[in-house]
Amino acid sequence: MTPSEQQQIKTLNDNLATEITLRLKESAHQANKAMAAFCDELASLAPHIRVTREKEDRPPAPAIEVTESIAYSGVPSGTEFGPFVDLLAAVGGGSTPPADGPLAAIAAPAMLKLYVSSMCPHCPGMVRQIFPLCLANSNLKLAIIDGPAFPELAGNDKVKSLPTLILDDNFRWTATVDTDELLQVIGSRDPAELGPAALKGMIQDGNAYGLSEMMVSAGKIFPAFVELLIHPEFSVRLGAMAAIEDVAENAKPIAGQVVTLLMERFDQVEATIKGDILYVLGACGDEKAVSFLESVAAGSENEDLREAAEDALE
Asked: What residues form DSSP beta bridges with 73?
């Protein structure tokens, strides 16, 4: 940090009404070292800001998680330093901005990615425009990504100019965004069209039963939900399994919609995930699974899978 930026952090620390805990989610990415150094300096300058570190199995990029709904991938420097300080001031101010109107009505998760640059003169305005929405309604998840620091992510998202805001990988705004338009698009989405990242966010937020209620209300299993049942992370699969059990308990025909899809994916996953698939097939209670489970129980070379298939049949 420059001397001026260091002074801003010290002033921020003196004015915080509550302590702030940031979480640095680390990975092997080359940007991790600079982000860790930034967090160390931040904590040393501001005793009221605590930084914890976590290593995730498959993080897409290192991230500084400011709240459960807002994270930075990159070092907030240059033109992005001011908005970052504003965000910390808002989080540590002891009050949350109220959500009303269309913002308050958003109940399904919305995954927002905002690509910025420390050299961009227009990026700070969009950051300051979007983060209050996410503070007011935690269903809006915001990842602020330094495009030049993570060119692979920007390339995957086909980002050609900054700032660029992307919603659920389907909608995008470049340079400017109208807040009313953004909230209208978020509120009018069909929940069944939510992607795996949005549904995973619900699971990780401990809202598996909220997800099951959404699917029961919609009368169908969301297409992306199947990806959670075969997700590499056990915690995600466990939450998805709790959701499908709840669906089966309240609307068994709807739960049965995953049966054929899971049987088709069975040979594409590792043994541990296969065991969980067998459990789900049993929990769904759909007769379409019977012959499949019988074949696994009788013919699998893996004893654990044979037992899991027998339990599922029961």
From this structure: 145
Cα–Cα distance for residue pair 263/277, rounded to 1 Å: 8
Residue 97 makes CB contacts below 8 A (sequence gap 6+) with 90, 132, 135, 136
Mean pLDDT of the chain: 93
Supply the DSSP symbol for 120.
-
Give the chain's radius of gyration (CA, Å). Answer: 22
Q: Decide: helix, strand or coil at residue 205.
A: coil
Query: Which tens digits make up the pLDDT trace of 188-210?
Result: 988 888 888 889 888 988 889 98
Which residues lie below 8 Å from residue 57, measured CB to CB, with a gap of 6+?
Answer: 232, 233
Whether this prediction's pTM lies above 0.90 is answered by: no
Q: Are 88 and 80 in contact (CB under 8 A)?
A: no
Tracing tokens 């927002």 back to the chain, one arrives at: 112
| Other beta carbons within 10 Å of 129 | 18
- The distance of Cα 161 from the centroid of its chain, to the nearest Å, equals 24
**The pLDDT of residue 237:** 96
